Amino acid sequence: MWDYTDKVKEHFMNPRNVGDIPDADAVGEAGSLACGDQMKLMLKVDEHEVITDAKFQTFGCGSAVASASALTEMIIGKTLSEAEKITNRDIADFLGGLPAEKMHCSVMGHEALEAAVQHYRGVSAQEASAGKKQIVCECFGVTAEEIERVARDNALRKIEDVTNYTKAGGGCRQCHGRIQEILDRIAPAAEPAVVRPAAAKMTNIQKMKLIEETFEKEIRPMLKADGGDIELIDVDGDRVVVSLRGMCSACASSSFTLKKYIEPKLREFVSPALYIEEVKP
Amino acid sequence: MSIREVYVDNNATTMTAPEVLESMQPFFSRLYGNPSSMHQFGGQVKRHIDRAREQVAALIGAHPAEIMFTSCGTESDNAAIRGVLSATPDKKHIITSRVEHPAVKNVFQYLGQNGYRVSELSVDREGRLDLDELREVLSDDTALVSLMWANNETGVIFPVEQAAEMVRAAGAAFHCDAVQAAGKIPIDLKRTPIDLLSISGHKLHAPKGIGVLFVRKGTHFSPWLLGGHQESGRRAGTENVPSIVGLGRACELARECIEAENTAVKALRDRLEKTLLERAIDASVNGDTVNRLPNTTNISFKYIEGESILILLSEAGIAASSGSACTSGSLEPSHVLRAMGVPFTRVHGSVRFSLSRYTTAEDVDYIVENMLRIERRLREISPFGRDELASQSR
User: Fold this and answer.
1) What is the ipTM of this complex?
2) Of the residues A51, A168, B119, B358, which has the maximum number of CB atoms within 10 A of its CB?
3) Contact at 8 Å (CB) between B270 and B289?
């Protein structure tokens, strides 16, 4: 059992500001269902850029819900530029601390806020990430920028800490060398930062989201007309694993549908390198 | 604390049966002799160990001489795998499945990094093994195959008896991790050529810190712990006498209760599962429901997260477990459910309820009532599946 503070427990049991703002001025999302947590933050902002209301919805563990609840309490009444100064560490401190393995929950809160502010200022998440993001952890889709920022904000020195705060390095561990490079680079005594050439590449999370959106808009309506459905099972690099449901799962031409219809749609709307694989239910 | 306590995490550990505890008491006080000693203090204790060995052997259809006591299931698995491989150093291929317990999985991973070629058998969407795949990968170079009898997370039972025949025919050794199966379903080692089999005491109402490795007569096996001549020279170290006696008694009780386990306990499990599936907003069972342990059900609640579920269940006095990433200690969700291709939307919201002969019908009703309440509550704060939730409340 995790060692949560009383304040974390209290915010989990009685979360503040859960719900919806249908006419929100700013909406920010962070995390991913695939990673086990996702948060949606909605803000009402007045003409002086003061946050007058904030509501959230969270899928996630106890500390994810508590971090979201804490964040809304912290930002209501603040201006956007004041709110922007809040770090993940501030969220964790507000809750009396989080277990090291759960610091990534506070990071998710911070990212949702960042995304909401960007949304308010008219920068879409895709524009914000386009061109500048360099994925270090493929398993959890964590970028070099995020690792560097979180490592700086929290004075992290060890790979294990980076994993606890961002999840980076918690999967296949292949990126440990690169995380170490970042840590070495930002260490107090280290040389000035070297700017690496950026690879314009989507994070796994962004990719998954886009695939889900494509399913929803382009593919499901057609399948549902025939009494079928599709479910995303896994995304591993360019490999997209899906499962067909309902009438589709018994349909003899399902593999035809996948290759001739669904795969081209994914390549058109998400990435030309994607290929699709089916697992039978 | 809450008034009611409902423990349905029996695949993690079980309550020590009162009869077991009673059988152990004298060995903490009056009967403290070392069974290896020549005097009467030791001699009388040794007779109790011999009896326990017979009781364990009777549960699994073995000969008492084939029963070796260890400190836990993990030690049994390690000793079996390493013991066989060091006795057959020329063969460099080993086979296991993708859904084994870490006590086997991580040993294979280590061996894979240290000179062994490892084949991992896949499972289908219901968690079932494909024996044709085993047949294909078996070769003259195969030293050992290790497969679990029943899965700890889903309860799915593997056809290990058939697998053992195939492995025997291929000239390799077969180890079976029966930690979850022992005491829940009948095991008869006279009927199957399984060479080594692991059991853990605390999964069948004996205390923690005691395990068994069955090593069939004639199996090439090198001891791992070296020292005294205990356990016929296969596992050195002074015997954990109270726990060995307790385990013997627990095996005797398990034999008496195995029918109830497959009728009464199974009926309660089925009732729990059926009611939850009928009444939850979106729930589905993970794993083959035909070949499954009678006490286990693994249910995914879509769009809600396992740790949150467990905290709220725990608030209501209910102990269960989850395959969600946040409950694993690592950040990865259950490797078992992932190997089965269970979608992310369901893996994180999976809950395992594992019952025991101490579970009552009132317990089951209490779990259902609370689980449905918790599902609704977490769905209300989740950003996913909100349309479905809205239509349900109409």
Assistant:
1) 0.87
2) A168
3) no
**Contact of A209 with A33, CB cutoff 8 Å:** no
Residues of B in contact with A167 (CB under 8 A): 331
For A23-36, what is the mean pLDDT? 86
Residues A40 and A94 in one domain: yes
Task: Assess contact for A86 and A70: CB atoms under 8 A.
Answer: no
Highest-scoring range by mean pLDDT, A112-121, A206-215, A258-267, B180-189 = B180-189
Q: How many domains does the structure of chain A reveal?
A: 3
A37 contacts in chain B (CB < 8 Å): 305, 326
Query: In this complex, how many residue pairs, one in chain A and one in chain B, have their CB atoms less than 8 Å apart?
Result: 89
B182 DSSP assignment: B
Where does the pLDDT of residue A198 fall: very low under 50, low under 70, confident under 90, or very high at 90 and above? Answer: very low
Judge: A62–B307 Cβ closer than 8 Å, yes or no.
yes
Give the residue carrying structure tokens 């000239």: B171
Which residues on chain A are in Cβ contact (under 8 Å) with B382? 57-59
Q: Is the separation of the CB atoms in B354 and B9 below 8 Å? A: yes
Q: Answer whether B318's CB lies under 8 Å from B359's CB.
A: no
Domain match, A93 and A139 both: no
| pLDDT > 70 fraction of chain B, expressed in percent and rounded | 97
Q: If DSSP codes are grouped into helix, strand and coil, which group holds residue B315?
A: helix
Domain that holds residue A260: 204-278
Q: What is the mean pLDDT of residues B179-202?
A: 98
DSSP string, B106-163: HHHHHHHTTT-EEEEE-B-TTS-B-HHHHHHH--TTEEEEEEESB-TTT-BBP-HHHH
Cβ distance B286 to B299 under 8 Å?
A: yes
Interchain contact, A59 vs B383, CB within 8 Å: yes
Residue A86 belongs to domain with CATH number:
3.90.1010.10
Nearest to A104 by CA among A157, A149, A164: A164
Give the number of other CB atoms < 10 A from CB of residue A61: 29
Domains of chain B: 6-13+258-393 (3.90.1150.10), 18-254 (3.40.640.10)
B91, containing H or E segment? none
- Is A1 among the domain residues? no
Q: For the purposes of burial, counting CB atoms within 10 Å of the CB of A188, is it exposed (0-12), middle (13-18) or buried (19 or more)?
A: exposed
- Residue A198 placed within a domain: no
Contact B5, B367 (CB under 8 A): no
Q: What is the CA radius of gyration of chain B?
A: 22
Residue of chain B nearest A102, judged by CA positions: B326
